[in-house]
Amino acid sequence: MTEMSSLELLITAVIAMVALATVFGLILGYAAVSFKVEGNPLAEQIDALLPQTQCGNCGYPGCKPYAQAIVDGEEINKCPPGGQATIDALASLLDVPAPELDAEHGEEAEVKSVAYIREDECIGCTKCIQACPVDAILGAAKLMHTVIVDECTGCDLCVEPCPVDCIDMLAVPATLADWHWQAPLTPAQHFASDNSDANLIATDRSLDHSKDRVA
Amino acid sequence: MALGRSSSPHAHGPRSTQWVMQQVLVATVPGLIVLTSFFGIGTLLNILIASVTALTCEAAVLKLRSRPIGFYLRDYSALVTAVLLGLALPPLAPWWLAVTGTAFAIIIAKHLYGGMGYNPFNPAMIGYVVLLISFPLQMSAWVAPAGLLVDGAPALAPDFISSLQIVFTGNPIDGFTAATPLDAFKHNSGLQVDQFYQQTPQFSQGRWAGFGWEWVNIAFLLGGIYLLARKVFTWHAPVGMLAGLSVMALFNYDGGSSASNGSIIFHLLSGATMFGAFFIVTDPVTSTASNRGRLIYGALIGVIVFLIRSWGNYPDALAFAVLLMNFAAPFIDYYTPPRTYGHGKSGTIIHRSKED
Amino acid sequence: MSKTWDIPGGIHPAENKQLSLGGPIRAVPLPPTLILPLSQHIGAPATPVVGIGDKVLKGQMIAAAKGFVSAPVHAPSSGVISAIEERAVPHSSGMQAPCIVIATDGDDSWIEHSGSANYREKPADELIAMIRDAGITGLGGAGFPSAVKLQPRQTITTLIINATECEPYITADDQLIRQRAADILIGIDILAHILGDPERVLIGIEDNKPEAQQALASVLADKPVTEGSPAIEVVEFPTKYPSGGEKQLIQILTGEEVPSGKLPADLGIVCQNIGTSHAIYRAICHGEPLISRVTTVTGKACDKPGNFDVLIGTPVEHLLTEAEFDDTCCSSLVMGGPMMGFTLPNQTVPIIKSSNCLLATTAEESPAPPPAQACIRCGHCAEVCPANLLPQQLYWHAQSKNYERLEAHHLADCIECGACSYVCPSSIPLVQYYRAAKGEIRLIGEEKRQSDRARIRFEHHQARIEQEEKEKAAKREARKLAAEAAKAKREAEAKTAANSEGTPESTTHNTSAGSAANDTGEFDIIQAALARVAANKASPQDQRKRFERAIETTAARLAKTEQVLEELSKDDSSELNKEQLAHIDQQRATVEQARLRHQEAKNKLAALDAEQPTAQKAPSETPAASSDDKSLDRAATAIARAQKNAAEQALMSPQQKLKKQRDALEKRLSKSQIRLTQAESDGSEQIEAFANAVATLNEKLKAADIELAGFNQNSGPAKVQENHREENS
């Protein structure tokens, strides 16, 4: 009798398990189909966050290859033109802690700069035109070249090939139109002392740290 | 001429954080007077010890954090924490109770979370809960209110000298204690409320909700009304809490049977109800941001206070209720943003970002 | 009396309006110079239509509107254009912007102009064009071109005239109404006519201006009711800041809210400032463009504050003198009111179309804000926010730069009225945080747009390169094919020729030779294909051979030139004339070049060797793919080089970095010197360019040297300290 009941118990348990599995499986399956998040493939999302300077500082021939490499497990801190902002954005997209910019690949520029050709010195060799990844240089052989400033990403790939060294990277001057107020110092930053052993509290530390980055 | 460059506005109103904190301190005075008149100088001693500890700890931590000490001490926030904790502790508690609680409140609950404005939990209540859990015996020994007739003899508050001895040398307090009304009510077994009230001196000599305690609550209510009148905070959180508590009491009173959980008036005027409603729940740092949120926040505190008072292990529950809702405050904020000018419905923050 | 609604929030700061209400509007003497910024309005800056030295008359247009949302600029007085240059302008940034500067001649002689009072007979379009040509922009502070606002696509049912003037201190509109109510009402009637006579015309005014209300009411009472004109109603409501904001005023007068991201016109409402309606009256009825306005000059640092009828472009300095401004006790100079105005960097900036107030305060009047304390989330800010935002949440997210959350909290709906900062007990500059965050969000959007465009251009570039490679490969293929075919043909011909020689009957068979050639046609193609395959297979070896040959020849040439050089320098050590020197130089250059060529050839060989295994592995790959591979390889080597450089740089101290840069410069210099000598010897046209390049490189090198020297002088720790000091300041 007891044996029978234990067998019964077993069967009941198995049936219950199977039933539960079926029900939850159906629910999950339904959810997967009906709540599916339509979105870009990850590489495209990453590519959208990269600055598109196509400068190759990261070690990949352009932003898209780097985006693909990130998907394949590459570090996200190899983009100097994007700087910390891009790293933070990538980190939040990929849900990983944001690392510091890897100095191996260069430093974040303080101000955006664009290429400028000293036109009277240009000999029309077209070398810079070939180097420009975004076709932002106009010109023809033996004729003067010039940069379309609005399209220049400031990657400085054109500086090196110039045989007469007539390309300068000039900082884009600030205008009234793109000026905006800077955030004031936070109370903590206001009082953060210069001897930075005031790192008892995590937030104090990170503030000092952000201050370093600003400076 | 050097002209400063700053962002507008270039005018500033008269209020400062110091002013807000001072108002809170002023508003505790009626409560403090009534507490002292019923329970002796124990509360004053508590506040004194807590204040000294708080200022010392605050200064020490500020020094460690390399912050200007004078500037931050002058905002009175440490003092407010100390006074609130001092008021909440049982009078004539041993001195180290106030010291431990305050130090914990200031160092751990406040500064380790980043200092004023950054603490997610009410420091005074953290200090209180730490003490309640660590030293339940000392925390539940309340002096009998002066004038309460126990077995025909009026209870006397200990005089100044014996108070000092109790607090600082550890003399036993036993001769002076009595159960608080909440405690007494919790241990009511089998009596109808009417009968119980008649048989228990705390209630039979009281007017509405227990001898002494009802006046303490009324005094804190007065302080709260003062703060409301000075517009230090809005009515939402305290009214929410009192309403939450009242509604729960109303539905669970069941006409005063032996299983009753107490009347509305009993709940409103006993324990830390009014103190909590106007001095703890209204702490802006740890509560919700919007008025709607504060109403909900307060109401839920009221409900939790009632739940713990009625079915929990502790006679009063303000500290637990407040801390639990501190947890929930960001969550409530999420769902209760006000409706912005020019926007249809307020929705939640999540849905807003999806909308856009 | 119309019903009014209340707005949420709001504050009651000290009004201080009596200060400047002491007397009537005063005239200002003609300043010696007038500075007219090209951008005094929202929208595209105007384009100058005059040149330096031109003589202009009062009211003459000196800069034309550019685009739809823009406004022209007129000369406020007669004189000579003395400069068109960057000058300090009234803007929060304290930056400079292009301005036209007029040196006035004192005649103040008008250009020919005329207006007419019977505007009701003119079509709206014509009146709008007149308003636009008069350069009229909103005079309330924002400076939006008025003509644009008067061309809504929607039907307008309500015209609201903003006479609120809710900011403390400012009384310009108040005084204007008191003195020129009749003109203003005509201006309002013009607006009503342009907008097709809306059902309601409301003048919104706060209850702290009873005199102004009285003035309006008495003119309205006297005014004969003209046919077709709508009734104008003056609506009074309680004083509260910021009820003068456009959105707030609409809410007060109609109870409706302008939906976020939409315009009042979407509700059938147009809102104009009362000062603007006066300017419109002057433009339509007198033909005068907007060249002057009423500005309040006030604050306790002025001994005689008041309202002034001031020409646009008058330097602030000049105007302040009129108000007997005391330089010594002034702590801050604000253009606009104390709540939304901005501080001026100095007193040379001009009054512009939107300057309604100049506020010079003393230190006790507006003390410097105390250092901000931590936010205690007291919620006072939310209590006073007229847009029902949660300012402290915005502050929190602005601090952590959480822009997504900021947008979810409707940061964009913040009107920056400053009420939250005003009441904040911790005196946190909340509005500055919002402005910074708004600017940052705008910037991020801009960068996103730019990077998207760069991405598209890059993709097009890549596609084009690929296409070109393919085409090149195809051409190469075709050429090779042709060559093979030709070769085969030649061989075939040779064969047939030999055959015909060998065989006696062949001479007579021209036709047979022809047919043979025909036969070989097909054969040729097959042969060529085979040859191509063979060539493909053999090509690495071929290339190798070619490179080896190149190395040999270059080596030989190198040896030869070196020898020549040596000889030259040997035998002429005593008496070198110029020619010989040049010769030696040339030889040296040749040697250098030969060395380079040699090196290049070697490199290529090495690259080939490296490549060969892969090439052998996949001999059947299409030419296009292999060329792709090659370009990828090239990219890879370039990248490897860049990476190595970067890695080295990262490891180096700044000093080393400088040194490295200097070395690189030196290398480049020597390279370009070689090129120069080469060019000189060739007599090339590009000598000048090369010479230039050498000169600039020389300069750069010098600069680097100097920097390096400076660096070496400063010992390491000193430098570090210096950095630190900079950081602190």
Primary descriptors:
heterotrimer; A: 215 residues; two-stranded antiparallel ribbon; 7 helices; 4 strands; elongated; disordered C terminus; C: alpha/beta; six-stranded mixed sheet; four-stranded antiparallel sheet
Give the structure's gist in a few sentences.
Chain B is 60% helix and 1% strand. Chain B is mainly α.
Note down, in words, how this protein is organized.
The complex is a heterotrimer of chains A (215), B (356) and C (729). Chain A has 215 residues and is mainly alpha-helical. Chain A has helices at 2-34, 42-49, 63-71, 83-94, 127-131, 187-191, 202-214; strands at 113-117, 137-138, 146-147, 167-171. In chain A, β2 and β3 form a beta hairpin. In chain A, α2 packs across α3 (63-71). Chain B has helices at residues 17-27, 29-39, 42-64, 69-73, 77-88, 95-110, 123-134, 136-140, 160-169, 181-186, 193-199, 201-204, 213-229, 236-252, 264-268, 273-280, 291-311, 318-335, 349-355, and strands at 149-150, 153-154. In chain B, α2 (29-39) packs antiparallel against α13 and α14 packs antiparallel against α16 (273-280). With 729 residues, chain C is an alpha/beta fold. Chain C has helices spanning 124-133, 146-149, 172-194, 210-222, 246-254, 274-286, 316-322, 380-384, 391-399, 403-408, 419-423, 430-502, 510-571, 578-617, 623-651, 654-682, 687-713, 716-728; strands at residues 26-27, 33-37, 47-48, 55-56, 61-64, 73-74, 79-88, 96-104, 158-162, 200-206, 232-237, 269-273, 292-298, 306-311, 330-335, 342-343, 357-362. A six-stranded mixed β-sheet of chain C has the order 1-14-13-17-15-16, with helices on both faces. Chain C is elongated, with a radius of gyration of 40 Å. Chains A and C meet through α6 of A and α12, α15, α16, α17 and α18 of C.
